Amino acid sequence: MKDFHFDNILNDCLERLAAGEDFAECVARYPEHAEELVPLLRMAQSARRVSQAVMPSADARARGLMQMQKALAARSGQRRRLLQFPRISWRAISTPIAAAFAVVFLMIAAAGGTTVVSANSIPGEPLYRVKSMRENVEERIARSDEHKAQVHARLARERGREMRELIVKGRIHDAEMASFRLQHHLSESANYIGVALPSHYIEMPRVSAHQSQQADAVALRQRLTHDEAYVKGQLIAVMKQVPEPHKQRVWRLAYQSDLGYSVVIIALEGGNQTAVSGYYMVGTVSEGSNAGATEHAEGHD
Amino acid sequence: MQAEIDGGQSDITALVKQAQAGGAAAFSALYEHYYDSIFRYVSFRTSSAVDAEDITAEVFVRMIESIHRFKWQGHPFSSWLFRIAHNLVVDFYRKRGRRPTVPLDSVSSVMQAASVDADANLDIELTLEEVRRAMEGLTELQREVITLRFGAGLSIAETASAVGKKGNAVKALQHAGIKKLRRELTATDMMDGIGRLKKLTTN
Question: How far apart are CA A265 and CA A229, in angstroms?
Answer without folding.
Answer: 12
